[in-house]
Amino acid sequence: MARLLVGVAGTLFGTPLFAASAAPIATSGGWLPTLGSFALGGLLGSLFGSSGFAAAFILTVLALVAMVAMRIFVKPQRESVAPPMQFAALGKQIAAAAPPSKAGEFDATAFLHAAKLNFVKLKLAGELGRLDRIRDLMTAEIYDAFRARHNDRDGLRQTGVVSLNADLLKMVTEGDRDLASVRFSGMMREGSGAAPVGFEEIWSLSKPVVSASGWLLAGIQQLH
Amino acid sequence: MHEKKETHFGFERVAPEDKAARVAQVFDRVADRYDLMNDLMSLGLHRAWKAFAVALARVRPGERVLDVASGSADLAQALARRAGPGGQVLVTDINGSMLARGRDRLLDAGCLASAVQCDAERLPFPAAWFDCVTVGFGLRNMTHKDAALAEMARVLKPGGRLLVLEFSRVWKPLERFYDLYSFKLLPWLGERVAGDAAAYRYLAESIRMHPDQATLAAMMERAGFSQVEYFNLTGGVVAVHRGYRV
Q1: At what angle are helices B145-155 and B213-222 packed, to 10 degrees?
Q2: Which is the most buried residue in A45, A75, B23, B120, by most CB within 10 A?
Q3: How many helical (H) and strand (E) elements, i.e. helices and strands, does chain A have?
């Protein structure tokens, strides 16, 4: 099937680059499709081919398509043998290994969504130098610490979150407070034009057990 | 066009009031596998098409951008990066499940965008509010395209631009192959991957019923846009139309 797709791709959107990238896949089933996609790819490539950027882009895209196509058409056979741990590599193990003790009592998905929203808000407010916007997301101590750190910095630092995951590590009640730990991980760009780097930090959130007030950020532990 | 009494749902004729619900059913059915199907159907090229549209939008930091029929928010994500922390991106979709999905994907990519579930023919925003409006693969599904375009013109500031990324009329020599691809392979792929051939048959049919490049450009002009131009991509499989509100 992958070969069929590749052949179709070569015919419709082909470029010489595409045909070249398709060849290793096609050869496993014979050389004719390779030749076919190369020829058609080359022909149409000359019609549609444009800049080097486009060619590079298409090459990337095609690698991706090949991966996706392989995944789709190989998966059904695997599924019947053993259910795949599809997300094992995406950093979800912790959430799966340590189920939060109070997770049943509230909507964990909504909680993590709100946590992510606040995470991004906090980063954006820091970038814009508008800390007043995040004043009510955190305890007074944390806010003071944030402000002090912000004032120490020379100018504003452009930090763009590129990808963001959040896992609920634990959820406990200590005395009159509910405490939650959320692990954020993902990629962040420090400074415009810089390559994104991985980050991981744990937020401690707290809220009074008997109160209408929401969760407040009470501590941040940066792992890296 | 008999849009007053009937409209098209693919090759079928349906009452205008039914079209939105029928389209909603399609998207509810395919929402889970939507992104994967996009990659498969376009052989990944939809990413290039979207990147091209975003480049044409020329969004500058601090601008206010509306992405109509945002779906899984691919365009919105790229637009949000360009608008920067000082800018504002709003995403809308008539379909709740697609919108929720897009909103979550934006957040997972570290982008802050407000999501509004609404009909593109009645946008709940003030006039002259946005610097840029985009609609990617959404106009085709709208029942009254003229009304939707007029709404987009209304919410744009004078000088603001509209970008329409949509399937269009393919280059003539490619037509036969394209028909074979869309009426045979596409429904088969839809059946196999998303478990729904009908939804993808609708896709192929709705593409054929959508106005071609010149017709859409004329519609945009009628809706109040000037300097309308379009760019064919992949031999006219899709086209990006850009117009400015005066």
Answers
A1: 50
A2: B120
A3: 7, 4
Contacts for B76 with CB less than 8 Å, ≥ 6 apart: B65, B67, B70, B89, B91, B102, B106, B111, B113
Nearest residue, CB atoms, B110 vs list A5, A9, A161: A161
What percentage of chain B reaches a pLDDT higher than 90?
65
pLDDT tens for A176-219 read 889 999 999 999 888 777 888 999 999 999 988 887 778 999 99
CB contact under 8 A, A68 and B110: no
Q: Is the pLDDT of residue A153 over 70?
A: no
Domain locations in chain B as residue ranges: 7-172+200-245
Interface contact A48-B48, CB threshold 8 A: no
Can you name the residues that pair with A205 across neighbouring β-strands?
A180, A217
Say if CB A220 and CB A205 are below 8 A apart: no
Among residues B40, B66, B152, the alpha carbon closest in space to that of A61 is found at B40
The CATH number for B7-172+200-245, chosen from 3.40.50.150, 3.60.10.10, 2.60.120.560, 3.30.450.40, is 3.40.50.150
d(C-alpha B31, C-alpha B72), whole Å = 9
Structure tokens at A43: 């022909």
Compute the CA torsion angle B224, B229, B234, B237 (nearest 10 deg).
30
Which two tokens mark B144?
């009254």
- Chain B residues within 8 A of A128 when measuring between CB atoms: 85-86
Contact status of B173 with chain A (Cβ, < 8 Å): no
Place of tokens 């991106």: B89
Written as one string, the DSSP assignment of A95-124 is HHHS--TTGGGS-HHHHHHHHHHHHHHHHH
Closest CA to A115 of A158, A168, A190: A168
Confidence of residue B32 (pLDDT cuts 50, 70, 90): confident
Minimal C-alpha gap between B29 and chain A (Å) = 18
Q: How far is B179 from chain A (nearest CA, A)?
A: 12
Residues 6+ apart with CB under 8 A from A210: A176
pLDDT in tens, B217-230: 999 999 999 999 99
